[in-house]
Design a protein that fits this description.
Radius of gyration: 18 Å
Oligomer: single chain
Largest sheet: 8 strands, parallel
CATH class: Alpha Beta
Structural class: alpha/beta
Number of domains: 1
CATH architecture: Alpha-Beta Barrel
Shape: globular
Length: 275
């Protein structure tokens, strides 16, 4: 699978999202995904499934260095000491001595960003993670975080799909040599019925979901971490590397972003970029 070179990190362009997965089903799904060829697994403290994800990784029997594992520190634990405790607890649950990417899950204006970035770098220096990054950071906060960080940030994980314009964030990530990792990459609702996607699916003999994921990974610097609870969907999502969308198809799908429909917007969300 193609990887993105992001400030020294090699991030597989397609991964397994685990939000909402739990229990033995989560463990089995992670292990099955790795058996199919996935090498990028995403979790977070908030998901309350790090132990199950770790069990799935262990069950796969794959060498640790073959995997790219991400976890995230929740926005209530961004103070220096809390950040370290959260990271160490995540590793204990995962059964790992380090993750490959540690992210600030959401910014928190109640905690000085300088303190959080210092804690993030301290985790890297202590060997708790190979690489560091952020999540849900609009361009202004991303610039501030980069300026504060001695070590390079390698990724910004954000909501990204054909119904939301994230062009400003993507441009900022590219300019900084970072990857933009798409969560909720398949959106919800009627996206698959849009002519731009349905027509491409017919033309390539693929499902609408495969067309959307291909749209993601065909954009330079973009990775996607779709979440599914169905084992058969894992194989479907992975089967996107044997075709290419042409420029007209890419443009038609990208044009849908003018809808600017955001799925994940909360009281604690930062002020988003205006396209």
């Amino acid at each position: 699978m193609r990887s993105i070179d992001a400030n020294g990190a090699q991030i597989p362009c397609l991964g397994v999202g685990t939000w909402t997965l739990s229990g033995p089903a989560c463990t089995e799904l992670v292990a099955h995904a790795l058996s199919l060829g996935y090498r990028h697994v995403d979790t977070a403290v908030l998901y309350r499934n790090e132990a199950e994800v770790g069990a799935g990784i262990a069950a796969s029997g794959l060498p640790r260095d073959d995997l790219f594992v991400t976890t995230k520190v929740w926005h209530t634990d961004l103070q220096r000491d809390a950040f370290r405790r959260s990271t160490e607890a995540s590793l204990a649950r995962l059964g790992l001595d380090r993750v490959d990417l540690l992210l600030i899950h959401w910014p928190n204006p109640a905690v000085p960003l300088a303190e959080t970035i210092e804690a993030l770098n301290a985790a890297r220096e202590a060997g708790l993670t190979r690489h560091i990054g952020v999540s849900n950071f609009p361009t202004g906060l991303l610039a501030e975080a980069r300026a504060l960080s001695p070590a390079p940030l390698v990724a910004n994980q954000v909501e990204h799909h054909p119904m939301l314009d994230q062009s400003r964030v993507l441009a900022a990530c590219r300019a900084a040599g970072m990857a933009m990792i798409s969560y909720c990459p398949l959106f919800r609702g009627s996206l698959f019925e849009e002519p731009a996607i349905a027509n491409a699916a017919r033309a390539h003999g693929k499902t609408p979901g495969q067309i959307v994921l291909r749209w993601h990974v065909q954009q330079p610097g973009v990775a996607a971490i779709p979440r599914t609870s169905r084992k058969e969907r894992l194989a479907e999502n992975l089967a996107i590397f044997d075709f290419t969308l042409d420029a007209a198809e890419m443009d038609a799908i990208s044009a849908l972003q003018s809808a600017n429909r955001r799925l994940c917007d909360f009281a604690f969300s930062p002020r988003w970029d205006i396209p």
